[in-house]
């Protein structure tokens, strides 16, 4: 009888450790998210399921074109692409991105731009000064984000620059649906 009790105790202990590890991983390291809406198409599709790396920005600074999840408000998280970093001036003119006056290519938009008629633009003109907050440069601790579907995205053009303390993490993997399994990024 004692041997059976020890065996049960070992199983319960193993399950509790496994649950504890899963909880720690889920709360502090990685979390799943479901894309809600078309704002990141064609890179990400509505209902894509992804893994968000929640610890990356504890050790490394954000990089241009990282795809991040952030708290847009108390009820909703958004997923967008980092375009501008702290200390930078951002401008979009004639469908060309300028950072501190220098042209920056956005290769992830190339296919969309090729499908436009000659008189159409994917991203309307704006400058950082025209966005909410009216900053001349992006303040420390903030990033400017845009959706890849520039014609249908609630992003920094509407909500302003995003404080890094509202960033949940960086998306790294789409795992569902299985035919969309991919590492995401540039």
Task: Give the helices and strands, then pairings.
Elements: H1 2-29, E1 30-34, E2 49-53, H2 56-59, E3 67-71, E4 77-84, E5 90-93, E6 96-99, E7 102-104, H3 110-114, E8 126-127, E9 142-146, H4 156-159, E10 162-163, E11 167-176, E12 182-183
Spell out the helices and strands N to C.
HEEHEEEEEHEEHEEE
Q: Nearest-angstrom radius of gyration?
A: 21 Å
Which residues form runs of ≥5 with pLDDT under 50? none
Q: What overall geometry do the principal axes of the alpha carbons give?
A: elongated
User: What oligomeric assembly is this protein in?
Assistant: single chain
Total beta strand runs:
12
Query: Could you give the distance between the termini?
Result: 60 Å
CATH C-level category: Mainly Beta
Strand share of the residues? 25-35%
**What is the helix tally?**
4
Q: Helical proportion?
A: 10-25%
Account of the protein in words:
- This is Signal peptidase I.
- By secondary structure, the protein is of the alpha+beta class.
- The chain has one domain: Umud Fragment, subunit A (Ribbon), CATH 2.10.109.
- Helices cover 22% and strands 30% of the residues.
- The protein is built from 4 helices and 12 strands.
- It has helices spanning 2-29, 56-59, 110-114, 156-159; strands at 30-34, 49-53, 67-71, 77-84, 90-93, 96-99, 102-104, 126-127, 142-146, 162-163, 167-176, 182-183.
- The strands form 2 sheets. Strands 1, 2, 3, 4, 9, 10, 11 and 12 form an 8-stranded antiparallel beta sheet that branches. Strands 7-6-5-8 form a 4-stranded antiparallel beta sheet, with no helix packed on it.
